[in-house]
From TrEMBL:
GO biological process: DNA replication
Protein name stated in the entry: ORC1-type DNA replication protein
Protein family (similarity comment): Belongs to the CDC6/cdc18 family.
Domain AAA+ ATPase: from-to ranges: 66-231
InterPro entries in the cross-refs: AAA+_ATPase (IPR003593), AAA_16 (IPR041664), Cdc6_C (IPR015163), Cdc6_lid (IPR055237), ORC1/CDC6 (IPR050311), Orc1/Cdc6_arc (IPR014277), P-loop_NTPase (IPR027417), WH-like_DNA-bd_sf (IPR036388)
Region (Disordered): 1-20
Signal peptide interval: none
Organism in which the protein naturally occurs: Haloterrigena turkmenica (strain ATCC 51198 / DSM 5511 / JCM 9101 / NCIMB 13204 / VKM B-1734 / 4k)
Keywords: ATP-binding, DNA replication, Nucleotide-binding
């Protein structure tokens, strides 16, 4: 018999272990501040109209009638995932009361980011809800095998009245988006399943005239349901309703107001507001303090600002990331902190050649670099050159170059290869 490599101490040994003390000085129910937490209705602020609109789409399913699909659209932290889960959960509860078979599946396409992965996740979710013992292969098969498992012959759904699928962050499926949507709608039209299917698709993309999103939007009957950002007062109300995450009296006066004001600065993002409050609590805990102060909130905000920037960079298009990498590399390796487009471009070409095997034109790269100024990743200026040189544009990085470089390139091998190539080049 093998021995467990992880030893469990005896009860006596654990008696004086400080870790055995489960109470903390700051939090009472920390889980209320997790981004995945779905609050009860009375804690949801300012989304009545959106909730009612989604209710109207899904409610029929609770009574055995066909539900409708919808497309939720808006910036991050505006309550899209929350509203979709909240309304779907209630519809499912009401269906249970009505003895209607309503199955719900939630797929986070950021995590399951190809058609096969998303279809597999959907099949597994439905299986777990309807028939947990049913065998579905984990790998080695394509998306169609998972659709078959759902609605072919005696597929999982053959006795269900309806299925509601939430496809969250559907834009992360890229070119596969249209594919999965058309499979879901065609299966129903073709009568492959007697089960009604509704899709709640959610996109975080802010520019909804982007080609893929427009195609997605046009596959829905109704207009997208737009989620506007919150204002500081709404963010404050959202945080107030989660106060019981903390022990009584722990939050100093002004802490919630400050966290909401800071989160409203960019666009009113509730995830950011909750994030700041949670990190502020963690910082207070680390300090051994029994109060969360405005100072903790400010520190937490700086930290969350960096995280936000990393996310923005990771979401950038490949070549815009290579160009940004070039600027970060120059910032790190040269004495200056401001570089002309020409300098960025020469470095960019090395990076792009290594990672993508091709590079874009000078003009395209200039356009891509300009896009980093809006989210305040870089700053850009027009500078008059010396005599007869004309004017040119310079770029300055607003964040730590090491952090930016690692956010720009996904794989460790790309990072190694690029650094090798750059150190061999004359840059
Ligand atoms: N109107 C609201 N009332 C209460 N909490 C909210 C509200 N909107 C968002 N939240 C909270 O903010 C966080 C982010 O919301 P989420 O629905 O994930 O945003 P999105 O999907 O639009 O990016 C979640 O923890 C959610 O509970
Ligand atoms: Mg979301």
């Amino acid at each position: 018999m093998g021995t467990d490599p992880i030893p469990t101490p005896s009860i006596e040994e654990l008696q004086d272990d400080p870790m055995a003390d489960g109470t903390t000085s700051i939090f009472r129910r920390r889980e209320l501040l997790r981004p995945q937490h779905v609050p009860q209705k009375d804690r949801i602020v300012g989304r009545d109209r959106e909730i009612e609109t989604v209710e109207a789409l899904l409610k029929p399913a609770a009574f055995g009638d066909p539900p409708e699909s919808g497309f939720l659209f808006g910036k991050t932290g505006t309550g899209k995932s929350l509203v979709a889960k909240h309304v779907t959960g209630r519809a499912r509860g009401i269906a249970q009361m009505q003895e209607t078979d309503l199955t719900a599946a939630y797929v986070d396409c950021d995590q399951y980011n190809t058609e096969t992965r998303a279809a597999r996740k959907m099949a597994f979710e439905v299986r777990d809800a309807i028939d947990p013992d049913r065998y579905i292969p984990k790998d080695g098969v394509g998306a169609s095998r998972y659709y078959d498992a759902l609605w072919d012959g005696d597929g999982l759904l053959h006795e269900s009245d309806s299925l509601i699928v939430i496809l969250d962050e559907i834009d992360k499926l890229g070119d596969d988006t249209a594919e999965i949507l058309s499979k879901l709608s065609r299966s129903e039209e073709a009568g492959k399943t007697g089960c009604y299917i509704a899709v709640v698709a959610i996109s975080n993309k802010t520019d909804y005239t982007d080609a893929p999103d427009e195609r997605v939007a046009s596959s829905f009957q109704d207009d997208p349901i737009i989620f506007p950002p919150y204002d500081a007062t709404q963010l404050q109300a959202i945080l107030e309703r989660r106060k019981d995450a903390f022990k009584d009296g722990v939050l100093e006066p002004g802490v919630i107001e400050l966290a909401s004001a800071l989160a409203a600065r960019d666009h009113g993002d509730a995830r950011r507001a909750l994030d700041i409050l949670r990190s502020a609590g963690k910082l207070a805990e680390k300090d051994g303090s029994d109060r969360v102060t405005e100072d903790h909130v400010r520190k937490a905000d700086e930290y969350s600002d960096l995280n936000r920037s990393i996310q923005v960079i990771k979401n950038g298009t490949p070549h815009s990331r290579y160009a940004l990498y070039a600027l970060a590399y120059l910032t790190k390796s040269k004495l200056s902190d401001s570089f002309s487009t020409g300098e960025v471009y020469d470095t960019y070409c090395v990076v792009a050649d290594v990672v993508a095997g091709e590079s874009l034109t000078h003009q395209r790269v200039l356009d891509l670099m300009k896009k980093w100024t809006l989210p305040e990743i870089t700053e850009s200026r027009h500078t008059g050159g010396g005599k007869g040189q004309g004017s040119y544009r310079t770029h300055r990085l607003l964040h730590d170059p090491d952090v930016v470089m690692s956010a720009c390139l996904e794989s460790a091998s790309d990072q190694r290869n690029v650094l090798d190539a750059l150190s061999e080049s004359s840059i």
